[in-house]
Amino acid sequence: MLYPMDQQFKAVVLHGFSNEEALTILRAVRALGMAGQTPAFATTTVSNLDWKLSELLEHLAEEHQAMMERHKGE
To answer: Where are the domains of the chain?
Structure first.
């Protein structure tokens, strides 16, 4: 397997949206109430636009996992 994330990992990567639009999209996706793991969200940045998609997804999966573990303790 090329990616360290599990095969059920879901991600939404946004490009070209304003902060307000991105927040609206995030809320809409969460409102769908999809069963299972909540998708990870990211927007493109100057630094990640040159990354391969696989690199971006790997980084996003790691960040998402860390965030989910922090929220479990709350």
So the answer is: 11-72
Rg of the chain taking only CA atoms, in angstroms? 13
Check: CB of residue 38 under 8 Å from CB of residue 72: no
Q: What percent of the chain has pLDDT over 70?
A: 86
Calpha distance 48→21 (Å, rounded): 20
pTM of the model: 0.74
Cα–Cα distance for residue pair 41/32, rounded to 1 Å:
15
Residue 43 and residue 22 in contact, taking contact as beta carbons nearer than 8 Å: yes
Of the candidates 8, 5, 12, the one whose C-alpha atom is nearest the C-alpha of residue 40 is: 12
Contacts of 49 (CB under 8 A, 6+ apart): none
